[in-house]
Structures
1.
Amino acid sequence: MKYHRFFLMLLLTPLLLAGCQGQSVRSPSAKSHAPEVPAKNRESADANVQLGMAYLQNGELAVALEKLQKAIKYNPYSSSAHSALGMLYQQTGELDLAEEHFRTSLKYDFNQGELHNAYGSFLCSQKRYTEAEKEMLIAAGNPYYKTPEIALTNLGICMRQSGDAKKSEDYIRQALDKNPMYSQALFQMANLFLGRQEYAKAELYYQRYQGKATLSAENLWLEYRIQAGLGDNRKAQIAGKSLLENFPDSRQALDYRERMLDEKK
């Protein structure tokens, strides 16, 4: 499974929410080297960051870049604008620029959990697993970071990519300890047990996840494989049919068709 897009979805949501609510709470000992800028400039920068993040989430990269560059023009010390630019350049494959902006975001606001989470996810995408783990643990351990379960889930995904299945499970369980109903952690646990062919456990986590999930190709493909593993052909066929009907051009639909052909041989 390719996790790049999944990481981006996990990262964007808390940053969008944080921006909507204004600056998130910082520790009194926050390490920040950002000079003061006029309030009007900060407000204009924050507004453009929000627009840029929304366009980035929708895949409109050119417009997102325009808004985020405008945010930097209003406030060159905006940590959220630099972090968002890091994610954008990560998307476009301009990795040196991405890392430069992630590092700048931390230079101007070291104590923001969201920023460490974003940089850690970038490092993981570059297979720099030890550095990634350090950044995400900083995020998860920050008492002022309101969504540590996101960083811990990202870390679980990262450790799975690194080949460390034990750490992957440990971190995702920690995410669920923080928030037992966090949907993406439930999804990852279901995937983890599916990979071990422990289908009954996978189904338990998937059932918990399903109540929080929206219909997607990823969800239906997961459900199909769990039900097929359990030997429930009726439920598996229902999931497969729904996958073909709702997401006929998805990679998961292609995988499903290939599996059906293999079974007919």
2.
Amino acid sequence: MTTIDDNLPSHDVPNAGVAPASAPDDARMAVVRGARLAYRERGQGEPVVFVHGSLSDMRMWEQQLPRVGASYRAIAYSRRYARPNEDIAPGIDDPLSVHVDDLIAFLRAIDAFPAHLVGSSFGAFVCLVTAMRAPDLVASVVLQEPPVLSLFVSTPPRPAELFRLFVRRPRLALAIVGFGATAAGPAQSAFRRGDDDRAMQLFLHGALGKDAYGRLPDLRKQQFRDNIRALEAQLLGAGFPPLRDDDIRGVRTKALLMTGEHSPRVFLRMTDRLEELMPNAERVSIASASHLMAEENAAAVNEAILGFLGRRGPTS
């Protein structure tokens, strides 16, 4: 494992259902499976599509688009329910499968395939499942700490599953139990009692680490707040789809697994297992960064992405 310390023309779809004040001036709009998804792009060539995580939107990739767009067609979109797209309605689940279907349709809608997919957290999980389901649309994947909990246990986990995991992988089991007890579980409880700010803080302290959360600028914390309803739907919903070891072994595309030097152990341990299972994966650790590595150390992330794509050569 290595450690690595213009205005665009408008899409012809109207920007209905979107808060105009939140949309960048150069945002385009694609209609995908009944939803309008905002996106931005830079450059020309092979498509590199960036998929954000929970409590985020396409703004999280602002430091990647210009750098990657100098050599590729770099595209960042806001997933369904993420700003500036229409927010999720109360009481609606937000399953990962919806976002996989959206990404497949989005790549086809804007003629951006086969694409190199770059995903952060929940978005990385979306990219991974997309590579399983639609390998013809995916040239490679860069996965930044996908929360593949359902590769090991149900979500939420059953006691018998945790016991078996403790026997086979005690460090991973401890990390999963710790994250559930200190972050996911308390955040769910806070959402149920209507305390959104507390839910957001608890979840982010667990996902980023308290030190990393405290260093974030106010503008980034506002982006979290802008997208909090979708996180609530995910945490209180049906959970992640089940995964099997053979599902991961079946991903034949080239993959870069990216972790943060200071990321919580639960993400590092899950990535350990992905590295064991994926036949064409390499791994890199981003120095001075945690789970939000694309923003915490953008230069190192950009270097790692471009180096990986350069080693692959042109898409055939």
